[in-house]
């Protein structure tokens, strides 16, 4: 929503039909958006999503990689396929969108990946998620060097606790195993940071992570 309010035309790639509602909300707010139902871990579907954006607007200025999932099982009990799925959704998707969107991005464009404070400090039973976010940040640092010649920036935004269903449906939160201490942000707090990192105002910021957590990392 925030990207559209700042003048962006938004392609929402989502495996859930919630993405269609996001598009309706953007349009009701006077913005322009399209919905592409997409399994972001699937190469062919990512390519189709990228092509849909290009077909509509001729180019891509900003990519925001925001897909994520978590598991809440100790590693020794975790099914192999659950680990693979977390890495596919959280990391492979970043690789795929970067690979297929960058050829359509002009100098001055930007990629913003949504990481997490769990890449830096974490808790038990969410190891695949924490590992995936650490991998995302390493990918971002390395790929930033490959993008220098194209004059495209790539960075991460790492939220802390944010008032979303993903937070409150976390079994560790519900059971009390993980305590929410400190500030809980709103989605718009993260959106503002993403828009900044995508904008020309952040033109000298590249290959790094902006932590947006209300100080949560300090007390994890």
Automatic annotation (TrEMBL):
Membrane-spanning residues: none
Pfam families linked to this entry: adh_short_C2
- Any one Gene Ontology molecular-function term assigned to this protein's record: oxidoreductase activity
Annotated keywords = Oxidoreductase
| InterPro entries linked to this entry | NAD(P)-bd_dom_sf, Sc_DH/Rdtase_CS, SDR_fam
Q: Which family does it belong to?
A: Belongs to the short-chain dehydrogenases/reductases (SDR) family.
Q: What is this protein called?
A: Oxidoreductase
Taxonomic lineage of the native organism:
Bacteria, Bacillati, Armatimonadota, Armatimonadia, Capsulimonadales
